[in-house]
Design a protein that fits this description.
Length: about 180
């Protein structure tokens, strides 16, 4: 996902006004609010509707933040985000804030996609190998996609390594067709 410049700026502003010891909990609250908003069609429609006043939107968000134990700083942040008409960038703001948090903790996200679920020991081994390669800790997420047939696809730090059987077969087929 490409993160807009606006989202990066808002995330940087939130990062700057949040105490370092509160950044992880702020991120948790952001994720909770993101889930509360984007997982409920009515809330999403209401908050995206330009006919709904900023005051109503802020009140809804404040109630959600109260339920999630959100800080006054977050309430002020969302008041600014909504009043400036930038709430559409909220999911990207969360992603940009997460990236700043991971960078501060010398950590990266990685995704491994396989045709069948991996054993926990395989995930541990892959995570350790990735940590050695990238030089930081890795938060590994596993996805299962039977269409890749076998092998794996690894994505870390914006780089993609496709070692899937499907890609190898497609490459082999293209090579045969070109001869």
């Amino acid at each position: 996902m490409n993160i807009s410049i606006i989202a990066k700026r808002y995330a940087a502003a939130l990062w700057d006004v949040t105490e370092p010891s509160e950044r992880a909990s702020t991120y948790s609250v952001l994720c909770g609010l993101l889930s509360a908003v984007w997982d409920h069609d009515d809330a999403k429609r209401l908050l995206r509707n330009p006919a709904v006043s900023s005051d109503v939107k802020i009140k809804i968000i404040d109630e959600c933040l109260d339920a999630l134990a959100g800080s006054d700083t977050l309430k002020l942040f969302f008041k600014e985000l909504v009043s400036k008409g930038r709430f559409e960038a909220f999911d990207q703001v969360v992603t940009a804030f997460e990236q700043k948090l991971m960078a501060a903790n010398n950590s990266q996200k990685a995704t491994v996609t396989t045709a069948i679920p991996l054993e926990e020991s395989d995930c541990v081994r892959i995570r350790k190998q990735l940590e050695e390669k990238v030089g930081s800790s890795v938060d590994l997420t596993q996805k299962v996609d039977p269409q890749i047939l076998g092998g794996m696809i690894v994505e870390v730090g914006g780089k993609l390594l496709d070692l899937s059987v499907k890609t190898k077969l497609n490459s082999f087929q293209s090579h045969l067709e070109s001869e």
